[in-house]
Every structure is written in C-alpha cells, then in structure tokens.
Amino acid sequence: MENGKNRIEDRIRRREAADERQYMIAEDFEVYEKQGAPLGAMTFHYHSFYEIIYVLEGEYASMLENRIYPMKKGDFLLIDQNVMHKYQYVENRHDSSRRIILWVTPGLLAQLGGKDMDLSACFRGQESCAYHFPIYYEEMLQGYLLKLAMTESADPPLPGARQVLDRGYLTLFFGYLNTLCSRREYLFNRDELVSHPLVEQVADYIEKHLTESLSVELLAEQIHMSKYYFLRKFKEITGVTVHSFVVSKRLIRACELLREGKSVSEACQLTGFQDYSSFLRNFREAFGVPPGKYTEYYPMD
C-alpha cells in the first residue's frame, strides 16, 4: 500500500516553493504540490478565483486580511475570491512543509454544481476559513486532490478521459467538502487564530472611507502612530506598502460593484480613484483584463 502511494506521489505535478506566480495558466483549474517555505508568496495578493491549501506534511501558516491561520498536517484552508492573503513565515517551522494547492474558477464550480448545488458555498458564510476534518474524511479528500494533481494516469489514455475524470474528481471533492464545511465542529477555534490589530484597524478604516482621499498621514493618525513608524511596521507585517494595500482594497470593492451591475465609471467613482486612467491601469495589472471585461472573464455563475 505504501509503495502504491509513493508511486502516485512520484507523478504529482509540482512547483518550486519560491515560484511567485499568482495567476492561472490553465483555463479553469490548477492543482499542484509545493514543498518547503513558500518564499514566493510573502506579500499580500488576491485572486478572482478560489484557492484551497491542504497541508500534506509539516506546518504552514497563512495570513488572511488581519488573521493568521497556523496549520498542521491534515488541515484545509479555503480562500474566497478577492480576499487579501499572504504566506506567514515562521522560522525553523516550515522547511519540511508539503501542501497541495488547488485553484478553481467560479465558472467551473457553477458548471459542476448545476442548479442542484452551489459548490462555492464552502468559501463563504463562516467566521473561520480553516478546517480540521476527521481522518476518514481527510484521506478521502486528499485522494481526490492527489488524483487531480497527477501529471498522467497509470492506465492507457482514452480520448477525452482525463477531462471527464478530472471533472468527476472535482465534483466529488467539492460535494463532500461543502457538506463537511457546513458542520461547525470542524472549524478552527478562535483561540487557534492570531489577529493583527494594526492591519485590522487600517483595513476597517479604509473600507469605511473608501470613497475619500486616504493619505498615509491620515491613516497613521487614526491609529496614533508616527507616519514613518507606521509605514515601516505595516510593511513588516503585510509585506506590502500602505499605498498598495489601499489600492488593492479599492480594486476589490470595484470588482464587487461591477458584479452588482455598476458601470466602469461608477465603479471608479465609488471606490475613491481620483484618476480614471489610474483606475484602468491598476485594474488591468491586478486582474489581467480591463474592468469592462471583468464580469465576462470572471462570471459569478
């Protein structure tokens, strides 16, 4: 049995831990393994697709918005669309970490679930987004992920078989995952999480005053810090500058407005961008498409 497992893992699709790519190359989903401290994800970033991190071995930690999720072998972390997150390095703790990463688009989950089930529901509606599952359920989910991450099948290929099998594994994986995530006893407890008050205060103020001018001086004043200490401390915690964080918050809100049916100009005005050309440039850099094409490339269903 152990030899069979090793043979499967020898065929797993892998990416280097320092690989900084945070966008999809495949059309609708990607699955791969990473090993070691993921130095390529040290700064806040966000996606228009969903992300799942499953810890195969060792320990791992992610910071989502202002919360740190310390994870160990067997844990699952579910990251919703447009949630700012980053890898949180812990010295001498993550070198032996191995994890499976799954990226999947909202459109594919909508196709797989059809009218009967919202397969993306597991990413929303809970106070935590990390889970411990009983070993039986964990190994079942792990099996689907490993099959999805395989570079090739052990059996002779049939025309179109890989796509059919992959969609079947994804449907089963998300079907079971949604059922398990609806049970609160599998959620991380609050005492397992670590919050960063500085990031929480800044993010809360930005979201409440998004349409206004938000200077570094103003934000530092709100949390009673000197400008330069605030700049240094914020970058130390998040890995990004205050300016980049504000722009990201504005862009995330712009996506929400576009999905609500607002026009591109309305989305620009309602998110505090003073310069329309700056809005267009930053949006394209963040999402790879102009705002007018966003809902076409990243549909809700």
Annotate the secondary structure layout.
Elements (H helix, E strand, L loop, with lengths): L1 H9 L18 E7 L14 E8 L1 E6 L2 E6 L3 E4 L5 E3 L10 E7 L1 H8 L16 E2 L3 H15 L11 H21 L12 E2 L1 H12 L7 H7 L4 H12 L3 H18 L4 H6 L6 H12 L6 H4 L4
Helix pairs in contact: 3-4
Characterise the protein shown here.
The structure is a single chain. The chain has 301 residues and is of the alpha+beta class. It is 41% helix and 15% strand. The protein has helices at residues 2-10, 106-113, 135-149, 161-181, 197-208, 216-222, 227-238, 242-259, 264-269, 276-287, 294-297, and strands at residues 29-35, 50-57, 59-64, 67-72, 76-79, 85-87, 98-104, 130-131, 194-195. The chain has a five-stranded antiparallel sheet with strand order 1-7-2-5-8. Strand 3 (59-64) and strand 4 (67-72) form a beta hairpin. Helix 3 (135-149) packs antiparallel against helix 4. The longest helix has 21 residues, at 161-181. The protein is globular and about 60 Å long. The chain starts with a helix and ends with a helix. The mean pLDDT is 86.
